[in-house]
Amino acid sequence: MSEITLGIIGGGQLGSMLAIAAEKLNIKTVVFSDDIDAPAQNFCRQFVTGSYDNKEKISEFINQVDLVTFEFENIPFKTLNEINKLKPVLPKPSVNRLVQHRLAEKDFINKLNIRTTRYVSIEKKSDLDALEDFLPGILKTTTLGYDGKGQYPIKSINELSSLKIDFSKEYILEKLVKLKKEISIIITRFSNNKYEIYEPIENIHEDQILKYSKIPAEINEKIFNKSKDWAMLIAEELKYIGTLCVEFFIDRNDNLYVNEIAPRVHNSGHLTINAFNVSQFENHVRAVCGLEQIPLIKISNAKMMNLLGNQITHFRNMEKFNDNEYFFDYLKKEVKEKRKMGHITTLI
Ligand code: ADP
Ligand code: MG
What we know:
With 348 residues, the chain is an alpha+beta fold. It folds into three domains: 5-89, Rossmann fold; 118-175, ATP-grasp fold, A domain (Dna Ligase, domain 1), CATH 3.30.1490.20; 179-347, ATP-grasp fold, B domain (D-amino Acid Aminotransferase, Chain A, domain 1, 2-Layer Sandwich). The chain has helices spanning 13-24, 55-62, 77-86, 93-100, 102-111, 221-237, 272-275, 280-288, 311-316; strands spanning 5-9, 28-33, 46-49, 67-70, 119-122, 137-141, 151-154, 171-175, 179-191, 194-197, 201-206, 209-215, 242-251, 256-262, 302-308, 325-329, 340-347. The strands form three sheets. Strands 9, 10, 11, 12, 13, 14, 15, 16 and 17 form a nine-stranded antiparallel β-sheet that branches. Strands 3-2-1-4 form a four-stranded parallel β-sheet, with helices on both faces. α1 crosses α8 (280-288) and α3 (77-86) packs antiparallel against α4. It is globular and about 60 Å long. The two termini are 36 Å apart. The mean pLDDT is 95. The site of adenosine-5'-diphosphate has 16 residues, from β9 and β14.
């Protein structure tokens, strides 16, 4: 029996699912979150709450664990770096720093000769004046965005004056891709050239928030292979350990672009819990804890639907689900509009 205790920073649904996967492998978990109501406290052995720069609370957390991982990327780099001096942090904090910043992330991807959307750095309002070429586009804060937060779609230069944009922040302007589809690749890297990679997952967003994911993705063979190759190249170049997600755009001419990298388990991979022999969460725990790598086997095709805000109520009240349906309630205390409250996976 293993004697490993894994620390997880972040206590949302991803933290919960990581803790559940770890406990199944007899790995104890301690979750650290700045949210006193964090749902992951229902699934871990110990729970520590405090802000992500609270030294005392961080010490209390790391004293109880052998190594540390995280469920989200927006953790102060300084915090991860300090922890890493005492207990190993995986994936390593430098990956996190790179991916936290949309410009650095896109520069890195382009250096690998992988296509991204066209983009330009915006530091002040006047930087936007001569950028007709990038419109229609989306202005995004370079850091701390998720689920479309901190994003402003801009159709034309004239529109700018009416938008209330806080220029004390740094932005990136991205040319809008005429989307045919979005897909993601989830890959777990164990060590040099040792991976488990899931097939491409097709994703549908509503209001920039993921709503549906499904396998198989309806894509051609070239995109199927290229998306996997690019994800492997990125994971290898980062010397990544653990589960990583690469989000892609496919335009109307079947060109593939990397949208962004998530250095963690990902919402689009929830269906891996039921559709594969090993889920993205279990694979993450196996990789960071140095456990055995098990070859992936697909059990079934599947589709997943996110339950946002009060969409959860109907499912909470259901008495019975079909045998091919798996309902997950994240046990969040407060129902908020568009908040991810749960999901349902259907094997098809
Ligand atoms: P987040 O960090 O919030 O996930 P993303 O950059 O992934 O931000 O944007 C969220 C969603 O918004 C994307 O999945 C896509 O649907 C849409 N989107 C973002 N950027 C573009 C773009 N340049 N062209 C077309 N759609 C975009
Ligand atoms: Mg995204």
